[in-house]
């Protein structure tokens, strides 16, 4: 339970940062991106301390469902704040930070999972590229939901409130596809490294993860082709992004949930 105080502090700072950004979107508070990043960085530090404490207590590499969620959520948070320095994506903190806070609850309440003390460089490449792919495409999914909100408001001529706070629609769409392109590069690397370096792929309860990851790759690839050649954008791009995101979520965590919770 040594991780509990760090988890509570991280949750408090995550909720504080997300709340301020939500108030900014609703035009109830002034835009303070540095404040939101600052609170997010403090939360991320405590988030990292939770990971360090639990790894020390359990020993070895932490690979169960709850550990994977808490580590990937830390990466998503860090990547969001880093990307926000160059791209207008900080509004995604409204969705990302509360989810990171919820994963910390599971980390403290349910810290178990499989352990692996040594990994090869190839497996390390697979793990890192998989985590980066999920992080980028998760941010893209939140970005797409904001884009859908903005698009729907403009269709109904609601040009006040949130719409005035968000960047222009063309900027939102451009950033969305930039995130998808970056995520696709990492996802391609993750799938390729999995086939190259993971032994007995179909004997390690990884077949579902592989199939779902490939299906997500196909969806995102079709979206990029459709956007480039057919001009797909707006709500169609949102639906394809969220569809690929759901498949990727099932690929990364659905199998672990089934093995550790349903069939355990």
Automatic annotation (TrEMBL):
| A Pfam short name | Cytochrom_C_asm
**Record-level GO cellular component terms:** plasma membrane
A molecular function annotated in GO for this UniProt entry is: heme binding
Checking InterPro entries in the record gives:
Cyt_c_assembly, YpjD/HemX
Keywords for the protein's UniProt record, in alphabetical order? Membrane, Transmembrane, Transmembrane helix
Q: Which residues cross the membrane?
A: 6-26, 38-55, 61-82, 89-111, 123-149, 175-198, 210-230, 237-255
Q: Which GO terms describe its biological process?
A: cytochrome complex assembly
Q: What name does the UniProt record give this protein?
A: ABC-type uncharacterized transport system, permease component
Q: What is the lineage of its organism?
A: Bacteria, Pseudomonadati, Pseudomonadota, Gammaproteobacteria, Oceanospirillales
């Amino acid at each position: 339970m040594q991780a509990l105080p760090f988890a509570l502090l991280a949750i408090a700072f995550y909720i504080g940062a997300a709340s301020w950004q939500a108030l900014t979107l609703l035009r109830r508070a002034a835009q303070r991106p540095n404040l939101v990043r600052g609170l997010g960085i403090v939360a991320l530090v405590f988030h990292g301390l939770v990971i360090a404490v639990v790894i020390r207590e359990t020993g070895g590499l932490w690979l169960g469902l709850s550990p994977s969620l808490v580590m990937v959520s830390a990466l998503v948070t860090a990547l969001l704040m880093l990307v926000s320095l160059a791209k207008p994506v900080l509004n995604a903190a409204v969705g990302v930070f509360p989810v990171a806070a919820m994963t910390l609850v599971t980390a403290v309440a349910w810290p178990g999972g499989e352990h692996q003390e040594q990994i090869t460089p190839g497996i390390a490449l697979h793990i890192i590229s998989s985590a980066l792919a999920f992080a980028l495409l998760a941010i893209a999914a939140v970005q797409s939901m904001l884009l859908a909100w903005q698009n729907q408001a403009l269709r109904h001529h609601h040009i006040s409130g949130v719409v005035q706070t968000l960047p222009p629609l063309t900027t939102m769409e451009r950033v969305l596809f930039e995130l998808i392109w970056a995520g696709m590069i990492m996802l391609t690397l993750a799938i390729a490294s999995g086939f190259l370096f993971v032994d007995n792929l179909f004997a390690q309860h990884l077949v579902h993860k592989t199939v779902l990851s490939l299906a997500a790759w196909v969806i995102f690839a079709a979206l990029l082709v459709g956007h480039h050649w057919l001009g797909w954008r707006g709500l169609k791009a949102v639906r394809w992004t969220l569809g690929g995101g759901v498949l990727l979520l099932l690929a990364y965590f659905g199998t672990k949930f089934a093995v550790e919770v349903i069939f355990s």
